[in-house]
Amino acid sequence: MRAVRRFFGRLAAWAGTESNEERLRAEIEGHIALQTADNVRAGLSPAEAKRQAVLKFGPVEATKEDCRDARGIAFIDNLSRDVRYALRRLRSAPAFTLTTVLTLALGIGATTAIFTLVHAVILKSLPVAKPGDLYRLGRESRCCIYGGYDQDKEFSIVSDDLYEYLRDNTKGFAELAAFQAGSGFGLGVQRAGVVEPLQLCLGKFVSGNYFAMFGIGAFAGRTLSPNDDRPGATPVAMMSYRLWHEKYGAAPSVIGGVFNLKGSPFTVIGITPPGFFGDTLAASPPDFYLPLSTEPLLQGESSLLRAPDGAFLDLIGRIRPGAQVESIQAQMRLELKQWLLAHWGEMEAGARADLPRQTLFLSHGGAGITSMREQYERWLQILMAASGFVLLIVCANVANLMLVRGVERRQQTSLSIALGARASRMVRQALTESVLLSLAGGVTGVAVAFAGTRLILHYTFSTMPGFGDVPISASPSMPVLLFALAVSLLAGLAFGIAPAWMAVKADPIEALRGVNRSTNRSGTGSRRALVIFQAALSLALLSVSGLLTLALRHLENQNFGFEQNGRTIVNIGPKLAGYQTEKLDLLYTGVHDALSAIPGVSSVALCFYSPLSGLNWAHHVFVAGRPAPAPGQSTSSGFDRVTGGYFETIGNPIVEGRSISERDTANSPHVAVVNQAFVRKFFPHEDPIGKYFGHSDIGASHLYEIVGVAKDAIYVMGDPGQPPGSFFFVPEAQYDMFPKADDTQEDLRTHFLSDIVIAMKSGARLSLSEVRRALASVDPNLPVMAMGSLHEQVEGQFSQQQLIARLTSFFGILSLVLASIGLYGVTAFNAGRRINEIGVRMALGADRPHLIALILRGAFGLIAVGLLIGLPLSLAFGRLLGHQLYGMNPYNPVLLLTAIAALGLSALIAALIPAFRASAISPLQALRTE
Amino acid sequence: MREKTDVRQGTLALMVLKTLEVLGPLHGYGIARRIEQISGDLLTLNQGTLYPVLLKLEQEGAIASEWGASENNRKARFYRLTRTGHRQLQAETQDWAQTAAIIDRFFAVKAGDLK
After folding, report:
1. Is pTM, for the whole model, over 0.80?
2. By CB neighbour count within 10 A (0-12 exposed, 13-18 middle, 19+ buried), where does B92 fall?
3. Span A630-668, pLDDT tens digits
4. d(Cα A642, Cα A592) in Å, to the nearest integer?
């Protein structure tokens, strides 16, 4: 109670600070006057009476300070005083302030930029209602289609049949929604009744309760409902706010309007809210949300909805309040087993054998499907650490500057203490100054971070024109701002502690003696320690960035098995244009002929997907005449479908037999070309030519005759150094029948070739407008999604590594520059202080090289110690990088020596300047200097 | 030579309250003098240390102050005990007496008494 009363008393007192100060002054004055009067009455002389009175009263300023502490909300009161004082001091040293703030801005900005990404990719929840109540199926995200009744490790992706079974039987979920795994599928979109070019958009199939499960309402119109998701319901769709806004000018007529998606009319019933980006943080969020029931309509022959073993759905559910996740999970495992047993009749032998092992897991779903987190987490950790080290080096540098200032300020501090200032107050003043500096650095840093994040986002996620951007905002959000604030405060304390400590140690007697005569060398030790620390960290950062850059080179320069030069890849979408399979042959022939007619083109071929395009297709292979493989035996092999002349066009040499040519038609025997890895895997001791094999079903083991073996080429990025996986290629013109209709359906999908490979004659250049014109002459409605050189496509596989290597190199170089500046500062300062000694040495006959060596020795002593600490640190970091080096040895002596040389060279430059300057002084002048 | 004792903050506050109760409204100098007189110069008191204590008591509402004129017509700030202050003084006097009594008893006990 008393404390509360006192607090309000303090508040009131603080409001009237100035009058209080006046009152205190008057009161003390009165007190001393009364005492003086009494002393005079007692017979002392007036002067002596006054002296005695003051002595009796004690230290006046300290008393005032105690009163201020007792009176005000001392903290705020002193703070505003200290801030004003610090601002005054900083204004009087603009060069120092500017340098410090800019250095800090770089450090804080780099850290904050990386944190923005960490926050968006790793920490943030989806912008939906109560994300904490959401749980998803699966611990790892699996993309995008999975066939069969057995899944490795866990059942994480399900078919529509299994989804409905789980939804209807699991009571612990208030809502359990399903949606297409992956980032969505391409859709050709045209507004009905309007003549406009086909627009390419991303669509995503979702269950009717998708929006209800997320607790998301429509921005305009209404959301999808389970009624829209019934078979036979009118096809409807929800449009993203982005598309509505950017393409249709937020026109109200869009809601209720009819759009042709892949040629089928859909009514747009609503617009999603602006911040909503679906269930997955991905490079491009979907623009259309479509009911699952429309999947057969849009996917036609390759529809998966009715296939009980065609898993293509991810699940997220909102649990009922109070429900136990563990018991829901246990129940769902049981349901999974029951469902699998119900499909026993359709299962392969392998799947039957695997059934007891099938299980599932629920994990937190508040962040949605976290494929991006899985992909980037490790990199972001590395970047966060690197930027953190840069910030540490920045702090060390600023601390160094502050220490110099502290030395210059010693006399003033001593004087203040002699006049009765308390040490705690001096510390507070010093800390206020450093925290102010770091806050200014933080504010500037947020701007740096904004620009940096935009740059990083631009490099990392280049989206296709017309698609939405990655839903990560570069503009700082509240958590990011708080992070920057916290980092700034911490940095301020980190580099402010040393000067504050010096303030405490200031001796009042120095003020009287004249501090310049003092031989005290306080502060030098800590400054040296800072330079050593900087050198060590800088070496570690340099070697890490070097390792990452080498790993990138290693990736880029591996033998890919195909020609990158003079090859152009054009990405088309025959499926988007609504092509039926029987018209495909005609389209491909037309495309081939039109493009071949362009001058300079040497050959043209099409394929289901080109190497390193990011796509991957694999099948279980069955060799004719062999028994069913044992459970657990790997039989999978990569698969691609190509037109005649493909191998010659992409430059993949045939090592045995022949390649696929125009003579492999629908009516000729069905053939396949396999790669060397395929031979090693399936025909280790036999000549493969003339052997038969098939895929997907043991009953289809006679599909293809092997007619050729191609050199191993890398289609999918694996670990470099590991040989590429097995692969087989079949001709586009040949259609196969499988015992099961599902397999035939799925095989049909692969006839929609998406990549055209164009090889140029040497020296010829391909103009993209010519390609567009040629393709338009075949079919003006054929969507052309992307065009670029094969080299770019390969490089694109490493854009992430490239960015990381560039960023860490930037951090490494920044740290090197900062460490050199730090060393320069210390060397210059020490040289300045030894100017007398230098004068004496010169007078005694020391020559200039000798003097320079003297100063350099001091500087290199520091660097040597820094290296000694930095070397093990670099090795440790290299080990930590581990897998991020793609099997490269982290102990690279050449690299380490290079890093040491770089550090040594910049240290030499940093130390030579002050050394030259000091040795250039004349002995007389040096001796005279005080 | 007698050793002089330092004053603890809480004790000083109690002395101030008692002084004001006995003497009525008084200025800072007067309070300081009174404390010195009563303690018979047993206390060294930097008179300045009184002022933070006065401020604290005033914030707690135990005393109130206003400007007035001193005996030789100087402007001085006079402190007086408030009702809260009276209550506080009573409570603390009791506490003090109790504590003192307990400590006294402890010192009075001789080693032999415990057997």
Report:
1. no
2. middle
3. 766 778 899 999 999 999 999 999 999 999 999 999 899
4. 12
Query: Which among A365, A368, A362 is positioned nearest to A286, based on CA atoms?
Result: A368
Cβ atoms of residues A545 and A811 within 8 Å? yes
The pLDDT value given to residue A378: 83
User: Is A73 touching B (CB cutoff 8 A)?
Assistant: no
- Per DSSP, the three-state class of A607 is strand
- Contacts with B74 from chain A: Cβ below 8 Å: 30, 33-34
- Residue to test with chain B: of A6, A17, A27, A40, most B Cβ within 10 A: A27
Residue A13: which of B46, B59, B74 has the nearest Cβ?
A: B59
For range A473-500, the mean pLDDT: 84
Q: What is the DSSP string of A292-348?
A: GGGHHHHHGGG--TT-TTEE-EEEEEEEPTT--HHHHHHHHHHHHHHHHHHTGGG--
Cα(A94)–Cα(A378) distance, rounded to whole angstroms? 41
| Secondary-structure percent of chain A, ordered helix, strand, coil, rounded to 5 | 55, 15, 30
Could you give the angle at which helices A423-460 and A410-418 cross, rounded to 10 degrees? 140
Contact A57 B46 (CB under 8 A): yes
What number of C-beta contacts closer than 8 Å exist between A and B? 79
Please report, in angstroms and rounded to a whole number, the separation of the first and last CA atoms in chain A.
Answer: 62
CA distance B79 to B83: 13
Tell me the CB-side half-sphere exposure of residue A341, using CA atoms within 13 A: 7
Q: Which of residues 16-45 of B touch A (CB under 8 A)?
A: 27-29, 32
Q: Taking CB atoms and an 8 Å cutoff, what residues of chain A touch B34?
A: none
Is some CB atom of chain B closer than 8 A to the CB atom of A59?
A: yes
Residues of B in contact with A26 (CB under 8 A): 75, 77
Find which of A112-121, A834-843, B9-18 is predicted with most confidence, using mean pLDDT: A112-121
> Does the CB of B61 have a partner CB in chain A at under 8 Å?
yes
Per-residue model confidence (pLDDT) at position B4: 46
Cα(A86)–Cα(B65) distance, rounded to whole angstroms? 36
For residue A883, is pLDDT > 90?
no
A727 falls in which pLDDT band (50, 70, 90)? very high
Mean pLDDT score, A73-84: 76
In this predicted structure, the answer to whether residue A611 has a pLDDT above a threshold of 70 is yes
CA–CA distance, A929 with A268 (Å, rounded to integer):
85
| Facing A63 at nearest CB: one of B51, B72, B77 | B51
Tokens of A625: 């005449």
Q: Given CB atoms, is A242 within the 8 Å cutoff of chain B? A: no
User: Chain A partners of B58 at a C-beta cutoff of 8 Å?
Assistant: 9
3-state SS class at A122: helix
CA gap B18, A819 in Å, rounded: 65
pLDDT in tens, A131-144: 889 999 988 777 77
Quote the CA–CA distance of A106 and A126 in Å, as a whole number. Answer: 31
DSSP SS3 for A137 = strand
Chain B positions in Cβ-Cβ contact with residue A67 (cut-off 8 Å):
51-52, 55
Put simply, the answer to whether B28 touches A27 (Cβ < 8 Å) is yes
> What pLDDT score does A515 carry?
47
* 3-state class (DSSP) for residue A782: coil
Cross-chain residue pair B76–A13, CB shorter than 8 Å:
no
Q: Tell if the CB–CB gap between A63 and B49 is shorter than 8 Å.
A: yes
Give me the numbers of helices (H) and strands (E) for chain A, helices first please.
29, 24
Please give the Cα distance from A280 to A646 (Å, whole number). Answer: 36
In angstroms, the CA A321 to CA A302 distance is 40
What does the angle CA A410 – CA A415 – CA A421 come to, to the nearest 5 degrees? 105
Asked if ipTM goes beyond 0.95, one says no
User: Over pLDDT 90: what percentage of chain B?
Assistant: 6
